[in-house]
Amino acid sequence: ICADGKGPLFISQNPYELTPTGGINRILAERFFIEFEGRDSTQGSLNEILAVYRKWKEFLDAQGIPHVALYSGNKSIHSIVHLETTPFVPGSEISFMYSRWTHGVAKLLNTDKIDFHCGEPKRLHRIPFSLNPKADRRAIPLTNNMINDSNLLWNEIQSPSLHLGEYRLGNGKKMPFEEF
Question: I need a labelling partner for 44 at 20 to 30 A (CA). Which of 25, 107, 111, 177 fits?
């Protein structure tokens, strides 16, 4: 973790209950994380994974399942599906479940754009607006407009309107959040 705004910041998708010695007693499954991964960080690749993500979003919306999406800052879109909190003991069926869910999504969407390594309950994901040093871009929460209009998302990627600690005004000036 880097607090100077220049390095990556991550958070676990699910909280843990710890033992008195600091080990993991239980994983509280609250979220299911899935990564739609492009071949590179170009606009064309982004358009491809957005098309797949839109199918996933349509499925979740039709089922009434709450979810959010985040551009990774490089070549992926992260989907975070909110679950009813369920405690699991580490090493139990939870890892198998997450793996099966990930493979099930790939089959449902008929896609090879999913990173199967992310199909596990302890996966970390980027904190919104934190820097992804691989592409020197920020992780961006996706709005419905960005999901539906890839040019809008691409413009936000190229020239972010929000940053850690500041807001960029239309005239190019920056205003620290504490001034609001």
Answer: 107
